[in-house]
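Internal tracking record. Fields below are filled automatically when a chain is submitted to the structure queue. Please do not edit lines marked as system-generated. If the sequence contains nonstandard residues, flag them in the REMARKS field before resubmitting.
Queue: standard
Priority: normal
Entity type: single polypeptide chain
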Amino acid sequence: MTVGISVSAPAGAQLNLIVGLVPDDFGKVVAELRVGHAECYVWVIRLARTAFRSVNEYVASKPKDVRVVLERVRGAIRAAVPSAEETISYQMPVYTLDGVPVLYFAGWKQHYSLYPASDAMVAAFRDELARYHRARGTIRFPLSEPVPVRLIKRLARFRAEQLTTRDKGKSARKTGRRAQLERVRRFCAALPGVKEKLSHGAPAFFVEKDKGVFAMFADNHHEDGHLAVWLPVPEGLQPALIEEEPETYYKPPYVGSSGWIGIELGRVGDDALAGHLREAWQLVARKVKKSRK
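SYSTEM-GENERATED OUTPUT FOLLOWS
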C-alpha cells in the first residue's frame, strides 16, 4: 500500500499521526491527527493487491524464508488460544473469539507485525517488548531474528484474557461481552436479509451481503471502556439522545461525525435496543435501495 498525506499545522504544534482501520466495506484507512487538544481525521484509499481466501493462501504468497517465520507465528497463536477461529480480515490473518479479534499478524519485507497492541498489553510486557519497534497498536519483529514463540504465546493469551474478562463473574451470563453480542445478534437476525461479518475489527451487521452496514459491536474500542453497539440515527437525534441520557448514549469515533450513536448495552433495555436496531436498518436499507435507482 502506498499512501501520501499532506498536513499543515500551526507553528510549534505537535502532530501525532495514528493510523487505524475503518470498516472494510469502506475500503479505506483513517489517519487520526491530534493538534493540541483538537482532532481531525484524514481518509485515504487502501487497495489490496490480492484477495486472500484463507491464511494458507496468505502465507503461501510470501517468500520461502518469510513463510517459515509466519508459520511459527501462526503456530504460537493457535497453541496459545486453541479455541480462536482463524480467518482473513483486511487481507491479513486474524484469530477471533466469538467474532471479536484476538490478534492479527502480517508479514512484510523486513519484519512481521502483531496487532492490536493495546496500551495495557505494552505496559504488561514493557521489558520484553522494549527491544522491538512499536507504533500505536502495532509491534514489529525483525524477520532476521529468531521468532520469540514464548513471548507471542503470552501476548496472545493476554489479549484473549482481555476479551473474556467481561465474561467472568456472577453477572457475566446476562451482561458479559458474549451475552451482549448474542443479544445484538438476536435482534439483528429478526430483520430482513441481515448478514454479519468482521469489519473494523469487530462484528458488524449489513442490510444485505457486503452492503449497507447498519450496526457495529464495540467492545472496549481503543480501551474506551464501552461495551456498546454503534448505529446510525435520524438526523438531529444524536445530540438529543446524548443530552437526555449521557450514561447510555455517546458519540462514537469515526462514524460519530456522520450522525451515528454509541449505545451502552448494559444500560439499554431489550425493547429500546431492538427499536434502535430496526430504525438503523430502515435508514440504511433506504439508502441502499436508492443507490440502485
